[in-house]
Amino acid sequence: MALLFLNTFCLSFLALIATSRAGSCRSYCGNITVDYPFSLDYGCGHPGFKELLFCMNDVLMFHISSGSYRVLDIDYAYQALTLHDPHMSTCDTIVLGGRGNGFTVEDWRAPYFNPTSDNVFMLIGCSAESPVFQGFPGKHLPCRNVSGMGCEEYYDCPAWTMVGHKTLGSGYGSGPPECCAVAFEAIKAINLSKLQCEGYSSAYSLAPLRVDGAGGWSYGIRVKYSVQGNDEFCRACEATGGACGFGTDGIKQLCMCGSFNSTTNCDSERSTSSKMTLPLAEALAGFCIHMAMWMISSHF
Ligand SMILES: *[C@@H]1O[C@H](CO)[C@@H](O)[C@H](O)[C@H]1NC(C)=O
Ligand SMILES: *[C@@H]1O[C@H](CO)[C@@H](O)[C@H](O)[C@H]1NC(C)=O
Ligand SMILES: *[C@@H]1O[C@H](CO)[C@@H](O)[C@H](O)[C@H]1NC(C)=O
Ligand SMILES: *[C@@H]1O[C@H](CO)[C@@H](O)[C@H](O)[C@H]1NC(C)=O
User: Wall-associated receptor kinase galacturonan-binding domain spans which residues (predicted)?
Assistant: First the structure.
């Protein structure tokens, strides 16, 4: 009886230690790991990434001022996200009517996100008065190929035969092209209503471009993220067993150490009481492990 009680106590105690040690803000949505600087819980992650990701029915969504996008991938090693906008044109469909999100982030969030330099935005059906074409007199257009991807090849997509390639815009020679490819740096905000465009497509290349043309491109928005050289805090926090978060002001970073929060890391601000409890906890854990070993061996 006493043994059973000790056993139950030890099991729950070990479980408690395991969860508080992990102190984790890490979570999953579908098969995508959500980890620092991202999080699904307010107070977890980096404050520049708060209220950004939402998990709905195992689908991870990215929400910024221009709209909601599905997250296809988070690449923590290269610090990049791959997003999908359902109203974005691809090689198979052209979506017009200005329904696409484009890509615009809130001013305060802008330093943290930038579409990668090898991501091409192809603006479709922009008016001649569009800001895209202003300041480029004569035939000098801002349209160009980005990482080997551009409108000339995009026109070969099946989507264009359906929509009627030459019916948009006002024909050759006069008027703007039906499609104009730009890099994000050139425009800074892909806002279809501001740019007076009917639609857009976005593609990116990860590896050296394959030769099979626009049909082989990856369609989506590849965004580079960065915590603005602010990574030291979190590294120190995690190294001492904490989880990185921020306070209720939504600005100041916090290291969550289970029983307390620290403004530095879990070692430097451990209170005297928890300094006492940690060795005690470790002693208890050791005792529990010995108990378990003894119980196992006594069965044989
Ligand atoms: C997640 O699963 C989908 C299919 O359900 C797959 O296409 C995708 O590559 C997976 N993503 C990761 C990060 O494993
Ligand atoms: C896009 O531009 C329009 C018109 O200038 C503006 O009203 C709207 O707020 C902008 N959208 C975003 C997401 O910035
Ligand atoms: C983009 O690349 C295509 C195919 O290589 C080429 O025909 C076209 O002239 C290029 N366009 C621009 C604007 O440089
Ligand atoms: C630590 O901070 C987080 C995020 O602000 C908060 O949810 C949590 O309750 C705090 N924990 C303690 C022990 O104060």
Answer: 25-85
